């Protein structure tokens, strides 16, 4: 993305990682703070199996995204992979899931090499509307694809992937809308209570807790998130 940053050694480390294990994919986590690109973390490169990386991605144990990944061109050509047309959101996630499910193993760099700058004027922050349903539709399309590419992972994917995307939409909406009434009006377009219930045993405790909080009191959820946002901006300005 044009408003993001990469480390000066982004390509060289990714290329070395692919060569080290003869892999078609090299992943590195992304950061949301520019200082995270200044050598913090380890340049250690490890090899992860398909199962390991799919579970990591599902549970968000590490921040992976398509822009922070190096991918062999052959993977797209041999599997006829194309970005979905007509969707405004999550086309990159839709592709990355398939890429990870296609490979028996990937190379993983332990240091962030990509900075996702959370610009309040970017497309992702300009509006939160019902077009966010695009992400849900793509996750549902992935269910049958996962059954074919990673059948041993299929049940876990169906258990959490769609619900986790609803959680992301809920989180983004609470950050975007300044009034509680607008937030609730937006949420009424989606089965939020039903989907948040599915996350009660999600391994990430922050996600499990906030999903429960929304089910108990959407107003408390909204107010808490806005308090956290204010606290974060105060800390960043110091």
Keywords:
single chain; 238 residues; alpha/beta; three-stranded mixed sheet; 11 helices; globular
Outline the fold blueprint.
Blueprint: E1 5-6, H1 10-21, E2 25-27, E3 30-31, E4 45-49, H2 50-59, E5 69-71, H3 73-78, H4 91-102, E6 105-109, E7 114-115, H5 123-126, H6 133-149, H7 154-176, H8 180-187, H9 192-197, H10 205-216, H11 218-237
Parallel strand pairs: 2-6, 3-7
Antiparallel strand pairs: 1-7, 2-5, 4-6
Q: In terms of structural class, how would the helical and strand content be classed?
A: alpha/beta
User: What radius of gyration results from the CA coordinates?
Assistant: 18 Å
Portion of residues in beta strands equals 5-15%
Oligomer: single chain
The low-confidence parts are 121-125
Shape: globular
Instruction: State the helix count.
Output: 11
Q: What proportion of the residues is helical, as a percent range? A: 40-55%
Question: Could you state the order of secondary-structure elements as H and E?
Answer: EHEEEHEHHEEHHHHHHH
**DSSP strand count:** 7
Q: Calculate the terminal CA-CA distance, rounded to whole Å.
A: 27 Å
- Can you summarize the main beta sheet? 4 strands, mixed
Q: What strand line-up does the widest sheet have?
A: 4-6-2-5
Output mean pLDDT: 89
Descriptive account of the structure:
It is built from 11 helices and 7 strands. About 55% of the residues lie in helices and about 10% in strands. It has helices at about 10-20, 50-60, 75-80, 90-100, 125, 135-150, 155-175, 180-185, 190-195, 205-215, 220-235, and strands at about 5, 25, 30, 45-50, 70, 105-110, 115. The two termini are about 25 Å apart. The model is unreliable at about 120-125 (pLDDT under 50). A 4-stranded mixed β-sheet has the order 4-6-2-5. Strands 1-7-3 form a 3-stranded mixed β-sheet, with no helix packed on it. With about 240 residues, it is α/β, with parallel strands linked by helices. The longest helix is centred in the C-terminal third of the chain and has 23 residues, at about 155-175. The protein is globular and about 55 Å long.
């Amino acid at each position: 993305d044009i408003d993001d940053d990469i480390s000066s050694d982004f390509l060289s480390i990714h290329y070395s990682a692919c060569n080290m294990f003869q892999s078609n994919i090299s992943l590195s986590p992304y950061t949301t703070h520019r200082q995270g690109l200044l050598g913090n973390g380890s340049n250690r490169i490890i090899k992860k199996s398909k199962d390991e990386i799919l579970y990591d991605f599902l549970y968000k144990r590490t921040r992976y995204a398509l822009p922070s990944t190096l991918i062999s061109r052959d993977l797209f050509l041999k599997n006829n992979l194309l970005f979905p047309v007509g969707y405004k959101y999550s086309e990159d996630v839709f592709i990355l899931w398939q890429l990870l499910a296609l490979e028996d193993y990937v190379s993983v760099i332990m240091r962030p090499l990509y900075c996702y700058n959370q610009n309040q004027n970017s497309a992702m922050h300009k509006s939160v509307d019902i077009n966010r349903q695009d992400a849900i539709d793509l996750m549902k399309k992935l269910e049958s694809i996962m059954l074919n590419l990673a059948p041993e992972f299929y049940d876990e994917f169906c258990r959490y992937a769609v619900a986790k995307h609803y959680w992301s939409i809920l989180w983004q909406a609470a950050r975007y809308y300044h009034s509680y009434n607008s937030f609730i009006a937006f949420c009424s377009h989606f089965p939020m209570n039903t989907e948040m219930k599915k996350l009660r045993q999600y391994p990430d405790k922050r996600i499990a807790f906030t999903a429960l909080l929304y089910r108990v009191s959407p107003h408390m959820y909204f107010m808490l998130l806005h308090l956290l946002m204010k606290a974060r901006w105060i800390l960043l300005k110091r």
